[in-house]
Amino acid sequence: MTAAQVQQSSKFSPPAYQNDSGAIAPTKKREEEEEEEEEIDYSVTDKLIEDRDYYDNASAAAPIVSKDGNFEFSLMDTIKRPDVLCPSVMFESCIFARSNRALLRTPEEDPANVGESWGDYINCTSIGYSLMAAFTYSIGNIVWRTRRRNTIRRRYQIEGNCFKDCAATTFCSPCALAQEDHEIKAREQEIYASDFKQGQQQLAFENMV
């Protein structure tokens, strides 16, 4: 190669992706694009889990519920917990209405918020429960409570049968109501915390793909 050719070739800049060592090096533009992508990913993640502190607290506060097919509290255990039993003795229709409200909540609704309003205690359910007790001498309430207890067991996969449900609601009505109310609150809080975590993970995954 002549001196003129060498001088002419030196006027051209080297290839954009080649350096002295022969390795492929990204251009400045490419580096800026990668940095921008990383910033977008982080911003999306922060936005999706902006309430992560709430979730952490909810997970920590989620009650430990037995998975052996039994109620967390037995009927006799409720007697040892006046804070659980007394409301069911003094305000049976209201506690029944509140627990029923928690049982029928929407998936997006936090069960911890159920019971903060008077409307969760005094509504058509509590009024109907009281009227049924007056006009049917509580026979209608036993039927209603038995059917609901059966629904609770099937929803949470708790062992039992209709005969035991009827016996509990007939002969141990306040204890059975306190047991059901506690179980619904514990199980629904656990379900809500689990659904919340799965939903956040799914949203984060979809936005990062």
Automatic annotation (TrEMBL):
Compositionally biased tracts (Acidic residues): 32-41
Protein name: Uncharacterized protein
Domain of life: Eukaryota
Swiss-Prot/TrEMBL keywords: Membrane, Transmembrane, Transmembrane helix
Residue spans of biased composition, Polar residues class: 1-21
Membrane-traversing stretches: 127-144
Region feature (Disordered): 1-42
Keyword Iron: no
Lineage of the species this protein comes from: Eukaryota, Fungi, Dikarya, Ascomycota, Saccharomycotina
